[in-house]
Amino acid sequence: MNVFISTKGMKDFSKLTENQIAELEQKVDEAVERRALLMVNDTKASAPVDTGKLRNSIDIIPQETKPMQRTYGTNVEYAMVQEYEHRTQKGFFRNNIVKHEPLLKSDIRKALRGG
Questions:
Q1: What Cα–Cα distance (Å) separates residue 70 from each residue in 6, 33, 34, 62, 104?
Q2: Which residue ranges make up each domain of the chain?
């Protein structure tokens, strides 16, 4: 189970120099990285725990990381079952995505404004 985070529209800043665009892209990338790490931490905290294998496996997937994009997830085979069928903690991935989506947008706006 993986969650993909990315941004669109950075190339719309056509009046900026390449250096200015690169600086903005770096700021947005840092904002996406910070928010992705917060999402990982919240998803881990929300995950059902028996042995801890599922919780400990949730992380950013380095081979799928690109500028302004992060994917996080788990390779535990029963993660989808827990996500959709656990008695008390189902939706631990989905709930955190819903929680963090507006926060990610806010983080990106702040980064673009220089905040």
A1: 7, 7, 10, 8, 12
A2: 16-113
